[in-house]
C-alpha cells in the first residue's frame, strides 16, 4: 500500500511541476510567487490555525501532531477560486481550480507517527498588458515551487509531542515579456526560466494539558530555519512577426545563464488555545517570516518592488453539538470558523501588500473510523487600490477528504 501511494505522489508531483497553475495574481510577478497555504481544509476553515492536533487528523503545518495519530489517514484537498481584480483604471475577473495537497500518515507505535505527501508551495500566474501610444507590452508568468515532505512525530509524554518535516522543494518559474511597436517591423519576446530545487526543514512542538475534568490547554510552536535553494536559469530572446496574427518567430537565441541561489526565509510560529474534547476548541496563533532577507538577482525584478519581514495572525475554532449522536446527523457535524490577517512582506510602490480572509467550514462524518468530507469557504482581499496598485477580492471554495483506516493490526483467529 505504501509503495502504491509513493507512485501516486510521484505522479501528482510531476503533474504539478508542469501543468498546474494555482494562482491568478499580478503580485505573483515578484520573487518566487505567492505562498500557498500549507494545511488541510480543516485548518484553512479555522483561519489557518495549526495548533490543534488529535488522533484522527493530519496536521501538515506542525509535524508534532503525527505523534498523536492512532489511525492511518489519507487526505486530499482541492479548491476553486473566483477572483475580481480592480485598479483605479480597470477591472477583470479570473477563475482558478487547483489540487492543494495529497498526504498519507500512519502510526508506527503508540508514540511515533509518520507522514508523507506533496503540495504546491508557491505559485506564479499573471498576465499584464501595458499599452501606450504606438506600443504594447505583454507580461506573462506561470509555474511554481512544489514540496514533497516526509514527516515524523514523537509523543515524548502524554502531554508533549515533538516532530520534524524534511522537505524536498522543486519546480520552475517561466516569465515572458513581449514588446511590439508600430514604428518597427518586428517585435521581441524575452522568456526567462528558473528551475528550482533544494531541501528545507520544519520543526514542531505541541503541548496539551488538562486544566480540569473537561477543559484542555493547547500550546504549539514551529520553527523553519532559513535555507539556500539552487536555481538553474535560462533565457530565450526571439524576434517575432506579430503582424501575422500568430506571432511567427523570425529569429531565436537561447542563453544559458549562471546558476544562482536564493535564501528560503525562516519562519517561527506560536499559538495557544482552549477546548473541550470532542466538543469545541478556540485558539489564536502568530507567525513571523524573515522575508526581508530574500535575494535572487535573476528571479526578483522590478524597481517598484521590495521585501520586508512578513507576519501572520490567525484566530479560529470549531464546535461539535454531540459527536456521538445516533439520532441526529447534524449534531455530529463539525462546524468551523476563523479569521486571518497576513502581512505578505511584499512592498510595491512603497505600499505594503496585505491580505485577510474570513473562513467557514463543515466536517461531514462518513463511514466508520471517524472519516470526514470537509467543506470550506473563504472570503478575502489581497492588496489595495492605493498608490496605483491592484485590489484582489476572492471567494475560495475548498473540499477535502480525510479517510481513516487501521494498519498494522494483528488479526486474531479462533
Can you put this structure into words, describing what you see?
- This protein has 414 residues and is mainly beta.
- It has a single domain (2-123, 150-164, 198-229, 262-405), classed as Outer membrane protein transport protein (OMPP1/FadL/TodX) (Porin, Beta Barrel), CATH 2.40.160.
- The chain contains two helices and 19 strands.
- It has helices at 2-19, 41-44, and strands at 34-35, 72-86, 91-107, 112-132, 135-155, 160-181, 187-210, 215-224, 227-241, 248-256, 260-264, 267-276, 280-289, 305-307, 310-319, 334-348, 351-366, 371-382, 391-405.
- The chain has a 14-stranded antiparallel β-barrel.
- The two termini are 27 Å apart.
Keywords:
mainly beta; 14-stranded antiparallel barrel; 5% helix; Porin; 414 residues; elongated
What's the SSE blueprint?
Elements: H1 2-19, E1 34-35, H2 41-44, E2 72-86, E3 91-107, E4 112-132, E5 135-155, E6 160-181, E7 187-210, E8 215-224, E9 227-241, E10 248-256, E11 260-264, E12 267-276, E13 280-289, E14 305-307, E15 310-319, E16 334-348, E17 351-366, E18 371-382, E19 391-405
Condensed summary:
With 414 residues, the protein is mainly beta.
Order the strands across the largest sheet as they lie in space: 2-3-4-5-6-7-8-12-13-15-16-17-18-19
The structural class is: mainly beta
The rounded distance between the terminal residues' Cα atoms is 27 Å
Order of helices and strands: HEHEEEEEEEEEEEEEEEEEE
CATH architecture: Beta Barrel
* CATH level 1 class label: Mainly Beta
**Average of per-residue pLDDT values:** 88
Please bin the fraction of helical residues: under 10%
Number of domains as seen in the coordinates: 1
Q: What is the number of strand segments?
A: 19
- Please outline the major beta sheet: 14 strands, antiparallel, barrel
What's the alpha carbon Rg, rounded to whole Å?
Answer: 23 Å
